[in-house]
Amino acid sequence: MTSTIERADAHPEAPVPVRKSGGFTAAAANYIEDRTSISGVVKEFGRKIFPDHWSFMLGEVALYSFIVIILTGSFLTFFFQASMVETVYDGSFVPLKGVEMSSAMESTLHISFDLRGGLLIRQIHHWAALLFIAAIGLHMLRVFFTGAFRKPRELNWVIGFLLFVLAMAEGFTGYSLPDDLLSGNGLRIIDGLIKGLPFVGTWISFLLFGGEFPGTDIVGRFYTLHILLLPALVVAFIALHLVFVVVHKHTQFAGAGRTEKNVIGYPILPVYAAKAGGFFFLVFGVIALMAAFFTINPIWNYGPYDPSPVSAGTQPDWYIGFADGALRLIPPGWEFVWLDHTWSFNIIVPVVALLALLGAVAVYPFVEGWVTGDKREHHILDRPRNAPTRTAIGAAGVTFYAALWAAASSDIMATHFQLSIEGVIHVVQAWAVLGPFLAYFITKRVCIGLMKKDHEILLHGYESGRIVRLPGGEYIEVHEPVDEYERWKLLDYEVYQPIMLRPNAEGKITAGMRLRARMSNWFFEDRIAPPTREQLEAGHGHETHGEIEKGPGLV
Amino acid sequence: MARKSRKANRRHPLATVVLIAIGLVVTGGGYALLSSTTTATADTNASSQETIDEGKKLFAANCATCHGMSLEGTDDGPSLIGVGAAAVNFQVGTGRMPMAMQGPQAMQKPPQFTDEQTAAMAAYVASISPGPAIPDEKYLQADGDATNGGELFRINCAMCHNVAGAGGALTEGKFAPELKGVLPTHIFEAMLTGPQNMPVFNDDNLTPEDKRDIITYLKYIENNPSPGGFELGSLGPVAEGLFVWIFGLGAVIALMVWLTAKSN
Amino acid sequence: MAHDEVSGTDTSASDSSAVETTRGASTGTVVIASDVANPGEPPHRQRVTDTDPRAAKRAARSVYTLFYLSIAGSVFAVAAYMAFPIEDGDPTALRLNNLFLGIGIALSLFGIGLGAVHWGKALMHDKEGIDERHPVRGTDATVARAVEIFDEADRESGFGRRTLIRNSLIGALVAFPLPGLVLFRGFGPQDQNPPELLSHTMWKKGARLTLDPSGIPVKASDVTIGSVFHIIPEGLNERHDKLEQKAKAAVLLMRLNPDDLNISPEREGWSYDGIVAYSKICTHVGCPVALYEHQTHHLLCPCHQSTFDVVNECEVIFGPAKRALPQLPIEVDSDGYLVAQSDFHEPVGPSFWERS
């Protein structure tokens, strides 16, 4: 083994690590090659290049967490009983001895208290699940703010979005399985939420729970979803997601030597394999450490589900928090009886708002593509500041999501900051409505400010902090010029001009065209074009600031 | 820079004055009381007439302004007729009374009186009109049935105090306090008397044995560490979510940055 | 400043004349990029381990030490598994088992991870490589051939021509999942009507109010002012559908000073000497509304903070709920026990479509 790798180290051009003669390794390789034609795969992928940037690893964190989840989850399935048959607990945890509970709860307690290492595996599974969805969320934000969703990657964005939704579904179904008091109340909320939907709500709830809530079916049904249907979908979509990553090749940030037509980075074998492979163990290690030191979901405190008790601070896991928060933010009285039916707008409105938020995330690439009209492939990422409107829209979305998220912990905030719960809710209501606008305007200004600063640096160099007194008595700060490689990183971006509204072939201006022109104007009205060679050459000594161009788009 | 510091200067003296004023009132008052009364309470064992008289004096000096000279209550404080010795022992023994200031609810703080003084006031209040007595020691040993206690705790207490006794929010700034570290006597008395906005759980609702079981359960989860490791405040998914975002993802991102940084 | 034509794969930035595209109808997209030329890759910077053999040796030592440390971690985890058994009923033993097993596993993982990454960073060849990109779209010839294949298949099958066959096939494909949809009806019991079920609870005339969970009946004299009793109907614990019934029938019993209660005319006689019984199930989404403040007489739901005012027949004073908590009419039987006068007069719990 070692000798092979040293060979590769010494001769980086060595194309195929499968050698043709000598030794057991070669014989085994030949055996496999004769039966699989695997050399083609090695030839294709062995030296495939991956660009290096820390933020490109976020998707890997999600993938690796998922692998950890599958490993630990498989272990748990050997012991978990997905049944709501009543039984009496007789395990090791003293304060629950003799309590009636479902088999699901009983077997989860057995895993936790009577199976050596079972609690560790359970905690790894749950921490990994939280990390999995958090990593997906952050990965999506990275992709969004760098414009990595642009052509040709729009469909892969949608696949990623579906994975995010599936991951939330996986999380929620898993959270409900132990049939403890906390998750039972979570299910109760879901039941109430479904019942509030017009036309079909009552029946969907009835069919989902196999009769009246809570029934005796839901754990078994969620178990099938949790370990069969949803994981199969997640695996399929991950595979598709990765196929597209290979087809498209990874994006890269602007940098010297990097163009839309190449990709610069380390080859899979050996450097990338070592780093990414090692990273799996690091992610796993972080999760294992969390599970070793920190309790998660102590179902033994919650006790078995019973519709009568509830705990203060009943919250869902973090990724469902935004939905719970949306429910909390509705002011009193949003429910009416009309046409002999109950219209629960205190439920319909948050549900529609959440679906709209998710829908907006899913279709954003297509909207932006339509507005720019840009049909080229993009492989160089945008720095977020160089796409101020997109970045501002993203910031507004994050602010809205954060408000819903914060609302879900309104009671915890109230007790820990000694506020009144009503006050917290009112502040978060205002935050959810006004916050996104504020975030939009502030972010856009900040982006444009940063672009101006970049422009300044390109033309006049860095502020060195060194003050020099001129012979005339004047003080100036010395600006250090940027070297051409650094300069290229700042320079290599594009701006769009707002679209001109002009009649089409039939001499008409349609409503769609008007809308598009207006959107284009909104997106690209404020922009700072990268300086030209001429400007750069003239830059030193001249006071030519990066002016915001006001677009000639709409009049 | 200059503006900022001027602003800070403008605020500081005010805050200091307020702080000093509060500090003086609280500590000075406490000292004055201590020095004036410690010599007076010699015999503490029985609620003799002497103790009751001592309690009456303390009550008149410290409580009567709000609760009235004969426990009838005023606009600032409720009547204490019929609250019994248990209520006094809880309120004064946990430092909730006397209140430092009016607020959504009386805050727990270091007790202002010695055990003897508290007992004297309790004896006095009980002597005016009977009410729940200080619980018998046999219910306070945390040696009951933790299972029954846990079940009753979840049904009667957990909605406010949280299943692990970590506390929770009530309306308009009030809250149910954390139950860790609270003396069994005080837990028992709180159930019995319903301090602040906490409802009363009389002996017909939760028998003394039930209350003992609840104390047993609370002491069990307090004295036995969580098997899974640190509890993150027993706050549930919010704490877990914050932890995974800040420390879990934080650690992973730190590793990512190290991993992709060029070796020197 | 280069105004780039946006069409196809032309990304050349050297053309300095402004060109607006007219691809499609009226795209008019104009892109502005700089005309500065890409300086090409910067010179390769050598690492300490490339230039200093001692540093390389040190790095190699760190790497294999980390791998050995990983082996030690694995061994430690196995040892911890045996050395820290779970003792029946002792949470401390369990905590130690969890802790040391976890530390061992984490050590074994970190050893491999840190070692591999350090190896990759410090010792492996670090010259970056370049891959060429090609348009994702296939070559024109490939695309043309694909189109041709579809045309041939269409011709050979008659898919486009034989519209009757095609349309009947589409119809069949639309119809075939229908039985699957119907099967979903079996998810719930056949003989039950959900709106009907949701409209009734176990409470009926004469049913005693009993303590949750023991089922001990409650006398009116037991309920002192300021008390709250968590109540279930008599006989609930014997029901096979206990949880389903409890999810509708759970009740909070409180006693207030009768003068504090504002009772509407039609509910006169529903309470007994200041003792009132209200459904514990929130009218928002069904959490137990159990947080009773006996001085303010507020009931708070811990899930979404809906607040109900017991004094005013549990009307909503804060939070997302709309409807007041339903009241259970109660009276006292001949033995002094509290009993229900009837079932609730409206469905309890969350709103649903058929409710009016």
TrEMBL record, chain A:
Output the InterPro entries linked to this UniProt entry: Cyt_b/b6_N, Cytb/b6-like_sf, Di-haem_cyt_TM
Where does the sequence pass through the membrane?
Answer: 61-80, 124-145, 157-177, 222-247, 268-296, 343-367, 387-408, 423-443
> Which keywords appear in this protein's UniProt record, sorted alphabetically?
Membrane, Transmembrane, Transmembrane helix
Top EC class, one word: translocase
Q: Where is the Cytochrome b/b6 N-terminal region profile domain?
A: 28-254
Q: Where is this region: Disordered?
A: 536-555
Listed cofactors: heme
- Return the EC number: 7.1.1.8
This enzyme catalyses:
a quinol + 2 Fe(III)-[cytochrome c](out) = a quinone + 2 Fe(II)-[cytochrome c](out) + 2 H(+)(out)
Question: What is the protein name given in its UniProt record?
Answer: Cytochrome bc1 complex cytochrome b subunit
Q: Which organism is it from?
A: Herbiconiux daphne
Write the lineage as a comma-separated list.
Bacteria, Bacillati, Actinomycetota, Actinomycetes, Micrococcales
UniProtKB/TrEMBL annotation, chain B:
**SUPFAM superfamilies tied to this protein:** Cytochrome c
Quote the InterPro entries the UniProt record gives: bc1_cytC-su, Cyt_c-like_dom, Cyt_c-like_dom_sf, Cytochrome_c_Oxidase_Subunit
The topology of this chain with respect to the membrane is: Multi-pass membrane protein
Which portions of this protein are annotated as coiled-coil regions? none
**Protein name (database record):** Cytochrome bc1 complex cytochrome c subunit
Catalyzed reactions per annotation: a quinol + 2 Fe(III)-[cytochrome c](out) = a quinone + 2 Fe(II)-[cytochrome c](out) + 2 H(+)(out)
Complex formation? The cytochrome bc1 complex is composed of a cytochrome b (QcrB), the Rieske iron-sulfur protein (QcrA) and a diheme cytochrome c (QcrC) subunit.
Q: Where in the cell is it found?
A: Cell membrane
Q: Which organism is it from?
A: Herbiconiux daphne
| PANTHER family cross-referenced by the UniProt entry | CBB3-TYPE CYTOCHROME C OXIDASE SUBUNIT FIXP (PTHR33751), CYTOCHROME BC1 COMPLEX CYTOCHROME C SUBUNIT (PTHR33751:SF13)
- What EC number(s) does its UniProt record assign? 7.1.1.8
**Where does the Cytochrome c domain start and stop, copy by copy?**
50-129, 144-222
Read off the PROSITE patterns from this record: CYTC
Q: Supply the Gene3D superfamilies for this chain.
A: Cytochrome c-like domain
The alphabetized UniProt keywords are:
Cell membrane, Electron transport, Heme, Iron, Membrane, Metal-binding, Repeat, Respiratory chain, Translocase, Transmembrane, Transmembrane helix, Transport
- Transmembrane stretches, start-end: 242-261
| Superkingdom of source | Bacteria
UniProtKB/TrEMBL annotation, chain C:
Q: Where is this gene product found?
A: Cell membrane
Q: Where is the composition biased (Basic and acidic residues)?
A: 42-54
Alphabetically sorted, this entry's keywords are: 2Fe-2S, Cell membrane, Disulfide bond, Electron transport, Iron, Iron-sulfur, Membrane, Metal-binding, Oxidoreductase, Respiratory chain, Transmembrane, Transmembrane helix, Transport
Where in this protein does the record put region Disordered?
Answer: 1-54
Membrane-crossing segments per the record? 63-84, 96-117, 169-188
Q: Where is the Rieske domain?
A: 248-339
Classification via Pfam families? QcrA_N, Rieske
What kind of membrane protein is this, topologically? Multi-pass membrane protein
What protein is this chain from?
Answer: Cytochrome bc1 complex Rieske iron-sulfur subunit
Q: Which organism is it from?
A: Herbiconiux daphne
Q: What is the lineage of its organism?
A: Bacteria, Bacillati, Actinomycetota, Actinomycetes, Micrococcales
